[in-house]
Amino acid sequence: MSGDHANENALDTEMKVHSLDNESLGGTDENAGENLVFDEAKTSRALALWVCTDDLPLQIIEEPCFLHFVHTLNPFAKPGNLKMVKAECLKIFKEERVKIKQALADFDGQISLSVDVLKTPACNEYMCLTAHFIDDGWEVKKWVLSFCRVWEVDEDVSKMLLKCISDWNIENKISTITMKNNSDYDALVKILKHRVQEKKKLQLNGQLFRVYCCADILCSIVMDALDEIQEIIGEVLDLVACGRQTPFWHLTYHALKEVSELNSMGEFFKDEYHGVEIPPNDVWNKVGGVVKLIGSVHNVAKSLFETKYATTNNYLHNLQDLRASLIPESMSSDSFIKPIAEKMLQKFDKYWNDMFLLLALTTLLDPRFKKKYFEFSSLKYEDSDGKLQVTAVLDAIQTLYDEYATTIDESEKSMSKSSAYFEGEDGDGPCPKSRRVEEGCDSSKDGFDWVQEYNQFTQSKGRCPKSELDFYLEDPVIPWIEDFDLISWWRASSSKYPTLARVARDLLAIPISVVTSYDAYLTTAREVDLGLLSSGRDIMGALMCTRSWKQSDSDKD
């Protein structure tokens, strides 16, 4: 069921307009409208539910067009006033919060957090804390847990974060936190990490805890390139009547690319173009070089942020392509482009080193890649450290798998189901424990000499039982599919790899970017929605949270 249908059903359930039975009253169709009974309380509830489910401003209930629409449906209807609907919104928030808190308490997986700081036109800042996880039904959840005003970034954000995770009682389930790559947040991450470690052991000794925002690093290296031609961007873009830059770097890139291509085609061969002075050749060379650099970044960003399935497994190979394109530019003979590319590569390499392990783990859990991708990439990119990296990644996934295997109750593993997949006709599957004991050596038996022991040793397969991880890695990679839904694949394979599927479920829920879609191209902080801002500070947080919870339910339907 679509989100729109879910909203219609919710409204139909919440807002029932009762009518008297015309036949019992002797009424006719002509006077049926006069017998309608209007319930103001139910109407306020329905309007509040609508506002909490869709991104509608509260003020819509006072708009003349909306009132006209309601009166057309029922001339006697009197929609609740703003105060009543606000009260209902807060009531819905409190009701839903109880349900969400219980759902988080019942959830037996890991929760990843993301923190974003949004700004208002008045330059006030609001912190948005979101929980990311994949539930037992393999549905991706993104629930806003807190949206509140920030007064002093350094001190207030850490206090608010600690209070929030304590209020939600999720300290023992947090696995990672994704934030912008600002060093100002280092102290905050350290404080949060310490709090979480008081409640639980972090995976891989906390190596994965801090997740650096990919959208942020891509934006940062693009701005490094644009800054080098900042003084000439305006005069170049004036030629196509778009001299003013936008806060979205991909739009600036497209405009520069367009004007550069027009120049290459001889469009600006005269000294002036529609009264605008044509820049000299050295300017065009600089613009062309920067456009080429940013084009490599844009191709990767498009693959990551404008795709249907933007899960963690898609990042490594795309970012490796970007790195491969920056390296030769950093060794360019062009004295203008070379230092720009070097700066971009240096900044990108730091991100690459910080994030490699997490991105590699999720790549390993993609059945199209597994170990094969690392073999391929080490040859393609002539990476001398490739073998060492593969070893480190395999050690990490083994450690993770072992940790999950020891914490998952044996009854939840469905071993009887998974063994059917793993037990081959040639007996290569895992040996039952009883069989291994029978085939082992019992030196306490009378008359059991070394010959018998040796014969039994040579006849036995002497193999250790294989784990789900072993079987998964040994299975052939599946054919390449462009729009591959990895979460659906693991959901379907969870009976075959019950423990490994739990590992995949938690890793794939980790957000690699704080923002996605077109917000990932923003060069400035995201702004608070004006409709939300107009609702008033007393209800902004409640609406932001409730909308994320209700929309998640609607998407599921």
Automatic annotation (TrEMBL):
It comes from the Eukaryota. Keywords: DNA-binding, Metal-binding, Nucleus, Zinc, Zinc-finger. InterPro entries: hAT-like_transposase_RNase-H, HATC_C_dom, RNaseH-like_sf, ZnF_BED_domain_contain. GO terms for cellular component: nucleus. It is found in: Nucleus. GO terms for molecular function: DNA binding; protein dimerization activity; zinc ion binding. Its main location: nucleus. Residues 419-438 are annotated as: Disordered. Residues 468-549 form the HAT C-terminal dimerisation domain. It holds the Pfam family Dimer_Tnp_hAT. Residues 306-404 form the hAT-like transposase RNase-H fold domain. This is HAT C-terminal dimerisation domain-containing protein.
